[in-house]
Amino acid sequence: MTKESGYAKINSSWQIEDKMVLDARVRNLRKAKDADTYAYITESYSDSPDIFVTKGKLGEAKEMSKTNPQQQEFAWGKTELIEYKNKDGKTLQGLLHYPANYEKGKQYPMITYIYERRTDTKNFYTAPTNRSAYNFTHYIQNGYFVFQPDIVYKTNHPGESAVECVVPAVEKVLKTGMIDPKKVGLMGHSWGGYQTAFLVTQTDLFSAAVAGAPLTNMISMYNSIYWNSGTPDQQIFETSQGRLREPYWNLMDEYIANSPVFQAKNIKTPVLMTFGDQDGAVDYHQGIEMYITMRRLSKPLIMLLYAGENHGLAKKENQIDYFTKVTEYFDHHLKGNAPKEWITEGQSYLKKKEEQEKKSPAVIKP
Question: 151: closest CA among 198, 103, 110, 208?
């Protein structure tokens, strides 16, 4: 519950002889082959990883490195644990990251990032980079709160479970008065992208959403292939993350109720959806299904399609492009910045083909 970590030494009688527990991420313990000398790494949200070595007690280790000394020249945020109850009354936690140079009494925009359980990353150090669109430190350094609530699940109700956890979590944070309730964004990738796409069909709490490689139609996804391994996607639902434990013909109502594409008529939130056209985990036609449905409904959705990319972007130019576009998208919808041309104009599929030689992604807008 505290997210502290560390190590303990026990004797042959299973009694603790020495222990060291810190409010940090402690990892990679090593022992010298012929000496009672130990080394380990610690890090926290605000302190980059360093090596500690001890010849005695674990808690008496000396710091042997000092990474990122230049960080002292920059403002940095802070992180705190938030407790809330989901719809069923279960007490859960979330990570609330404060913007750098936070000013008490001022309201800020907030981006909510979701996957499953996120609070165990409380003491992970995240260096800023322009090659990850989901880099929390980037947003924190640019005047955003970032919130990561934990999600627990009920069998056969994966999307609905996310709603029952995320909505009460965000509402709890909004009660602090630190966040502008009209400037709350939502984002996630893969399973987090699915939950993002589903959440906006069930609530108008968010002013903008970014869904990376989301599952959108649980029935067609059940009948597709996980191309990275060549195995049927049926196992994802019946034995793994999908949590729909029987075939769709036995649970038709649940498959439909938890599929974003079948609930798309309820969406009012602008959505940015992204795929690689060689995605071997979630076939990019899941995105096409959502895009075509939203187009027919005249709903606000933009689809980015990156040529030659798998489930995550590997090419540097595409990573930077996606990072830039997500930033511009949130800055427009959550900060009121003027929209960039790619948001207002889009790009046709044929135009995209013409520019493939330039390694530019397609931006398809209804």
Answer: 198
Helices vs. strands in the chain: H and E counts, helices first:
10, 17
Q: Is residue 217 within 8 Å of 167, Cβ to Cβ?
A: no
**Cα-based torsion angle of the residue sequence 115, 116, 119, 121 in order, rounded to the nearest 10 degrees:** -60
Burial label for 335, CB within 10 Å (0-12, 13-18, 19+), is middle
What is the chain's pLDDT, residue by residue, as a tens digit (366 residues)? Answer: 999 999 999 999 999 999 999 999 999 999 999 998 999 999 999 999 999 999 988 989 999 999 999 999 999 999 999 999 999 999 999 999 999 999 999 999 999 999 999 999 999 999 999 999 999 999 999 999 999 999 999 999 999 999 999 999 999 999 999 999 999 999 999 999 999 999 999 999 999 999 999 999 999 999 999 999 999 999 999 999 999 999 999 999 999 999 999 999 999 999 999 999 999 999 999 999 999 999 999 999 999 999 999 999 999 999 999 999 999 999 999 999 999 999 999 877 787 777 767 766 666 665
Give dist(CA 176, CA 183) in Å, integer.
Answer: 15
Rounded to whole angstroms, the Cα distance separating 313 from 325 reads: 14
* Residue matched to tokens 């606000």: 300
The answer to whether 235 touches 189, Cβ cutoff 8 Å, is: no
The residues near 277 (Cβ < 8 Å, ≥ 6 apart) are 284, 305, 306, 307, 308, 309
Eight-state DSSP code of residue 338: P
Q: Please name the helix (run of DSSP H) or strand (run of DSSP E) that holds residue 244, with its range, or none.
A: none
Quote the CA–CA distance of 30 and 41 in Å, as a whole number.
Answer: 10
Both tokens of 317, joined, read 């130019």
List 179's β-bridge partners, or say none. Answer: 108
- CB proximity list for 120: less than 8 A, separation 6 or greater: 3
Alpha helices (H) along 22-71 = none
35 φ/ψ angles, rounded to the nearest 5 degrees: -150, 160
